[in-house]
Amino acid sequence: MSANTVRARVSFSFRGETHHLDSVVDLDRFPGGPEAMPDFHRLLAQSAGIDPHSYLYEVLESHEIEFSDATGVAARCCDDGKFDWARFAHDVSEERDWEVARAVSEPLIGACDWDAKPDLKAALLAVYRAGRAAAS
After folding, report:
1. DSSP letter at 22?
2. Reduced to 3 states, what is the DSSP secondary structure of residue 114?
3. How confident is the prediction for the chain on average, in pLDDT?
4. How far apart, in whole angstroms, are the C-alpha atoms of residue 59 and residue 70?
5. Phi, psi of 128 (to 5 degrees)
6. Exposed e or buried b for every residue in 79-106, given b needs 16+ CB within 10 A?
């Protein structure tokens, strides 16, 4: 699976000074799941050396972050300046499940164009997930 990154940017003015914060965030550092979404405002503040207990940080938090230049699975979740974390978490989980199912099945079945056989791919995923659920 390729690296998942997204560029986060925000511009705002505070006390007559304009601030442009821009950072590429490595999303693989954060566990998947909508409840585990990183605090992008805090990440931008840290990269710019802004104290999270300052008024400047409060102004930063009141502005919407623009997302772009996503890579990996994240590219499917970044559109028109928005980033869909719930979709990203779901897609990463799907990708991880598929990587395991494929690694187990290819030595037995052989490599093939899985996208050309969506029914077989879905069946393998279902079997993998049933086995994982039974083991829990």
Report:
1. E
2. helix
3. 91
4. 26
5. -60, -45
6. eeeebbbebbbbbbeeeeebeebbeebe
Q: What is the pTM of this model?
A: 0.82
- Hey, how many other C-beta atoms are within 10 angstroms of the C-beta on 72? 19
- Nearest CA-CA partner of 57 in 72, 69, 67, 45: 45
Amino acid at 104: V
Per-residue pLDDT tens digits for 77-128: 999 999 999 999 889 888 889 999 999 988 988 888 888 988 988 999 999 9
Name the region of 57 (left: φ>0; alpha: ψ -120 to 50; beta: rest): alpha
Helices (H), 10-84: 40-48, 55-61
Token pair listed for 39: 């605090």
Q: Which residues pair with 12 in a beta bridge?
A: 19
Judged by DSSP in three states, 23 sits in strand
3-class secondary structure, 118: helix
Q: How confident is the model at residue 34 (pLDDT cuts 50, 70, 90)?
A: low
Rounded CA gap, 107 and 105, in Å? 6
- Token readout for 102 is 């494929």
In whole angstroms, what is the distance from residue 65 CA to residue 127 CA? 40
